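Work through this:
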Amino acid sequence: MTKRLELIFENEMGGNVTLTLDNPVYPANPVVISSAMDSIVAQNVFTSTGGEIKAKKAARIVDRTVEVIDI
């Protein structure tokens, strides 16, 4: 089982930009995540094909389970 934190932002064109982090601290702290996302927007560190990141939109933890099948 693997977990991934997805930070979803909106760019200048209104599209979504998703930054992913593997193996996040769990359970997640919404205050820390929101603050980190605010810093990413304020520092204008990342760009996308739709332009600069303009706003935070959502954050989520995705949990994936893989079961190997012997054949």
